Structures
1.
Amino acid sequence: MLVVCSLAAFMAFLDATIVNVAFPSIQGTFHHVARSWLSWVLNGYNIVFAALLVPAGQLADLVGRRRVFMVGLLAFTLASLLCTIAPSAEALVAMRLVQAVGAALLVPTSLGLLLGELPVEKRIGGIAMLGASAAVAAAVGPSLGGLLVHASNWRLVFLVNVPLGGITLLMGRRVLREQHDLEQGRVPDWLSIGLLAGTVSLVALGLTQGPNWGWGDARVVSSFAGAALLLAALAWRSRSQPWTTSDLSLRIPSVRLANVAILIFACAFYAKILTDVLFLTSIWGYTVLAAGAAITPGPLITAVLAGPAGRLANRFGLAPVAGIGAVVYAAGCAWYALRAGTHADYVIRWLPGTALTGAGIAMAFPTLTTAAVEALPARLYATGSGLNATARQLGGVLGVAIVIAILGHAGAVGGHNAFVDAWTFAAITAGLSAGAVLVLGQASRARASRP
């Protein structure tokens, strides 16, 4: 069951980054299509994925987590196959949106299924492995994408999901048991779901397109204004409907603080991924394939240390391990800002930073994920998992948007100083997440001391 859920999370978060490297190859195939329109191959996935995570989790808690998981997995796998053979840019964008729907169904249900099956004493370790799978997928996406594009073209980037999805479908049918909300008589509040999806999608749209359209552009301003209006409508709806997303888990202080910490840490995490790839290819002159190989040790370190980090969290507590992880990650980003000069020296100037950030991710991401769901009642496992994944995704979108603003627009990448600024931003942001974890630890101790 852990393998099935981890594979699902791996595929969903892999596609959030792997296609970025393939985008120039996609442009070469559809050279007659405007770049601004073709960019929806990337942006459409991120926006729809972020918008549907919480509604998908809520739906899964109500109608069955296994059922929603299998539907999402089938949709994601079939959409990946259709992306591989897409005859036009329009078809590719459409199938990417279907992929995003499938991924949104997969992520909260995978964690919800895991929480529903594992005994309490094994949850931290299990969630650590699942969180590590998602973190490794996001980090290894650029390197794997570069390798696949180098071997053939962009179509191979989508084809890799098909055998993985097929294997996961076969295993899931055998090992997953149905789970759902044991309280009878509940039905989804479709209006709240629509308001929430609209709010998140407009926020993601504004963050994604801000660097391209300009932050003062009427379309960006309208996106944020529309999100504020929909959020106000959602708050009004929650007063009359007890079963709404805003009423579920954010009233639990530890859950609220853990999601804030995840959003901030994800901002630093995704900002650094983009900065690393652009630095290696533009300043050190690496090929995309070589840059991918240079980045790979970090995700490998994360995968190796995720299990031990989970055991440490089980022994010493979630907040201390997550806080140390965020500080270690910040130190790794600071290493790059101070030591990665204009002349390539991988072993001396790059590898130590990779070791620090890989270890930091292993300690921070999985433990924060656990903190975001451990206090939830069983009937809200998938819903809370969706909220956790939404915080991570929005943090990623925000981090990428800020890095693009720091480094420059439309591929006009700045000099070395701009990359120092980008890594400094990632280090400061990771440090801020450590501060949020400190507050989380205080809230957890207060909750534990109550009779």
2.
Amino acid sequence: MLKVAIIGCGKIADSHAAQIIRIKGCEIVGVCDTEELMAIQLYERFPIKRYFTDVQRLLAEAKPDVVHITTPTQSHYNLTKQCLDFGSHVYVEKPFTIDLAEAEKLIALAEQRGLKLTVGHNGQFTHVARRMREIVAGGYLGGTPVHMESHWGYELEGNYANALISDKQHWIRRLPGGLLQNNISHGIAKVAEFLATATPQVITSAHSSPFLKGLGEEGIADELRVIINDEERTTAYFTFSSQMRPSLRQFRIFGPENGLLLDDYQQTLIKLRGTRLKSYAEKFISPMMLSKQYAENAARNVRQFLSRDFHEDASKKFLMESLYRAIADNTPVPIPYREILLTTWIMDEVFRQISAGYPFRKQPKMSEH
């Protein structure tokens, strides 16, 4: 029986606990939060053996095999290090760490101690993401990716957004990348998976939307555009937007022969043919072929829904199970460390450029002639 613990008993911890108890062969031996009431409420709502307010007591008394860290990002490094030093494997919620230096130290420590470490990029393990990975591996693109486009939409509404806007001391505001740092790693990770170099060229543009400026918020960037270019001449665009409609969570990857379109919201995967049909056939037959693919995606989604494998956190459960199998069988981690480090490196570079040039100076108006 794999013994699992959770550190941090906020909202995200609920989704972790709900999936952990659905996985055979593991049990939650303890949860921990410095706010005792938070620990108690999680303890009382799930089949959990004990609750703690001190991490060292949790480790010493519950002796977990693996720890899930679901706290604000600023605490990830110290908590993960404590768990690794104790001898526990670790699942860290996104974003992995504050910066690349922390990420490198944790991965080096995990490798030194022979422990497994992963980050909560569960978006990489949805049904369609796994299917896309298989199709790419099967050679559908016709070679190395030529170009990628990743869109990650975020809607500034609900209790979470209201708390961020109203609380000037909110922990997200204290991150080096603010709102962006807490949200863009999912979209960046999709690109990082297919880049060849560890230090690609990154060009960044960011600003506060008119919506935020209307609220008097000019210190929060909620619109981001990034161009990425690696040594193999694979290029990528990444877009984060709170205002673009429709709000998209899509990933497109194009090879020398064909492309693929993944839609996270719709959970669809569409094959994009690299050649056109002759004459007017392209205008009649191609739309019908796309319609057939969408219908097949819809049917697949219905089947998965009926089999109870289409819930919102199915990808999180898959990532957890993959980590647990890697621990039990001593096999590679589900997300290669290279991808974790590259995602963090790109984010560091984005925030460095924003810090250097954001808010941007207003350009002088061109003179009229």
